[in-house]
Design goal:
alpha/beta; Spore Coat Polysaccharide Biosynthesis Protein SpsA, Chain A; single chain
Length: 315
């Protein structure tokens, strides 16, 4: 039985899955299995996967139901005690699984683990995780008691850099399948996990979030997505100020997306519970501006990224 099951949901990633699997197969840590669940792809994704002959790859087909269903299904098929997530358009550096394995060995009492990661905006711009914990240096490992206060700019946990004990994942009932098209099903799970147990973390960056991946579900029109509901955690945020701020930042993001989509009712719904003190002056300014001004700001943001500069209202 392998130590780690790598969970890979697959939906129309013909252009990306080859590089992703290649990054998996060159890992320095080799005691793993890969559970790939083809969630009803209509392109050539299956043929690409089947071109790999490694015995550690286990491939399953199912009808299209969405990424949360696919991940939960893959975990059901997993035989290892630990599960690590890898999306079909992301990339692992060769020591990523070794990094996670070191965490599980050093902190056996922990229930979930994560490593540092970088966001690849395009071929010449990759930006490392922005969090206070990264000030610890490149080789720090430790337990982080307060997940939320370290996740105000970028979340400590990002799907392709997270590992969990399978039993812990199951105790949380997995990903919420009512949240669709990448509209926060991962964020919702990390919140529930953090409320149960602290995360063990390595600041070593060994995973890459590919923001240029093809067929990204996060590009689905806002009105066609069912977002996580921050208000599900109202009771908890009333006694955890850092969680309240973290949720308000998510409300801010969701509110802006719905304003841009012309869904003013949803915009008001997400905005109403935001404490303005939890947003920066810049964020409060943007939140209250009309759609056309925000649209112009987004154009500037995209131009900045193209010239090698990450411009964000979250920092």
């Amino acid at each position: 039985m392998p130590k780690i099951s790598v969970i890979i949901p697959l939906y129309n990633k013909e252009k990306d899955i080859k590089k992703t699997l290649e990054s998996l197969l060159v890992q320095s840590f080799s005691d793993y299995e890969a559970i790939i669940v083809n969630d009803g792809s209509t392109d050539g994704s299956e043929a690409v996967v089947k071109s790999f002959t490694d015995d550690r790859i286990k491939y399953f087909n199912k009808v299209n139901e969405g990424v949360a269903f696919a991940r939960n299904y893959a975990v059901e098929k997993a035989t290892a005690s630990f599960i690590a997530f890898l999306d079909a358009d992301d990339y692992w550096y060769p020591k990523h699984l070794e990094n996670l394995n070191n965490l599980t060995n050093k902190f056996p009492e922990a229930s979930w683990y994560a490593t540092g990661y970088e966001k690849k905006h395009h071929k010449t711009l990759s930006v490392p995780l922005q969090s206070p914990i990264m000030n610890q240096g490149n080789d720090w490992l430790g337990i982080i008691p307060n997940y939320f206060e370290n996740s105000f700019t970028d979340a400590l946990a990002w799907t392709s850099a997270v590992c969990m004990k399978k039993e812990f994942f199951l105790s949380l009932n997995g990903f919420d399948t009512t949240i669709t098209n990448g509209a926060g099903e991962d964020t919702d799970l990390w919140i529930r996990a953090a409320l149960k147990n602290p995360i063990a973390f390595s600041t070593q960056i060994t995973a890459q979030h590919n923001l240029q991946g093809s067929n990204r579900i996060s590009h689905t029109p806002t009105k066609n997505r069912v977002f996580m509901n921050p208000d599900n955690f109202l009771a908890e945020e009333n006694v955890r100020p850092s969680l309240k701020k973290y949720l308000d930042l998510n409300r801010y993001s969701f509110a802006l997306q719905h304003k841009m989509a012309g869904d003013i009712e949803a915009f008001k719904s997400y905005s109403k519970n935001i404490d303005p003190k939890n947003l920066t002056t810049k964020q409060n300014y943007i939140l209250n501006k009309p759609k056309w001004i925000i649209k112009e700001m987004l154009k500037i943001q995209k131009m900045a990224v193209l010239t090698g500069f990450r411009f964000s209202s979250f920092k």
